[in-house]
Amino acid sequence: MRTAARTALATAVLAGALLAPAGAAFAATGSAAAAASSSGAASPSVPDRYAGTPVSIDKGIVAVLRYRSEGPEAWIRAVSPDWKPGDTYTGDVLLTLDDEHRTGSVEGLQLKLVEGEEIHVQSLVVTKNGKTSSYELPHGQGSECGSEPVSQPIGAGALARLMMTPNGPVAQLEFAEEGPDAEHTSLTRAVPSLPEGAGIIARILNPSSAEPVFEWKTQGGDMPYGHAAFPKLPKGCTFDYTFQKPTQKPQPDPKPSAKPSTKPSVAPVAPRPQTGGQTTVVPKGPVAAGAEITADDDNSITTAAGAGLVAILLALGTTFMVRARKARSRG
């Protein structure tokens, strides 16, 4: 059964890996289309390496602000002097600021990346002629924006490590029979549950809600389901998706069976008294030779009848022998 479970789990992981990029691409396309529709301007085709939030920091100069897993970035680009929000911003790169190069200057502007009080909050500070302006970067989702895993035993030699990330809850399943270098199966928002036939039940209920719940059952019968909450996202980190209203309810524990009644449901039957222990059947007359002792049970009548029949046959045989002797003596 475990071999079948591993095959099913691998199928689920592969399906999730194939579906996740497609879902992300669809969501990104929908967001871009919505932004273009709201601004009323045609959305330029912007490759990922140009993606970010453009802000005008001086005439003919924009700063494209972004925060990737590698850290904060500010791409200083040259644009047309009459640039306005919604126009293309893929002009020449004048300067790039990142976590390793946090200060610079261009066209009389003094630029600096400044870290905020909260985790992954950065601002671009621009100073020109003694006047300072600050532009906040989108909140980052670096490696610290993930909770520490919480180990949850789920029975049958299995363990679930529960984590919360900006992209949602993660339940990593580990089995005792797997080696330390095994590639463990993980449940996510893209693949929230194991497929049927996996051998156990493990799933994330309401994975896109504010409070997802991990539910499992590794034993059959009336054994109850197990439930565990996911840890919280660290302070200063934000989710990459909009919460959805919960639609799934945890499976309730099975109701306890009714207590057995102390009174017997059927009155006990009193045993039939034995009057004589055993019954002796003694035929009279010539069949007395076939008499037998039989027990007083359901087979007593059959036994007595069989014994009587044998006795009658013996008696008839004796009678014929006597008559034959008398006939010979007379002759």
Keywords:
disordered N terminus, 3 domains, 4-stranded antiparallel sheet, elongated, alpha+beta, 331 residues, 17 strands, 29% strand
Structure description:
With 331 residues, the chain is α+β, with helices and mostly antiparallel strands. It has three domains: 2-23 and 143-229, no CATH class; 53-136, no CATH class; 279-330. It contains two helices and 17 strands. The chain has helices spanning 2-39, 300-330, and strands at residues 53-58, 61-68, 71-78, 93-98, 103-106, 109-115, 122-128, 131-136, 150-155, 158-165, 168-175, 185-187, 201-205, 213-217, 226-229, 278-280, 293-295. The strands form five sheets. A four-stranded antiparallel beta sheet has the order 1-2-3-4, with no helix packed on it. Strands 5-6-7-8 form a four-stranded antiparallel beta sheet, with no helix packed on it. Strands 9-10-11-12 form a four-stranded antiparallel beta sheet. Strand 1 (53-58) and strand 2 (61-68) form a beta hairpin. The relative contact order is 0.09.
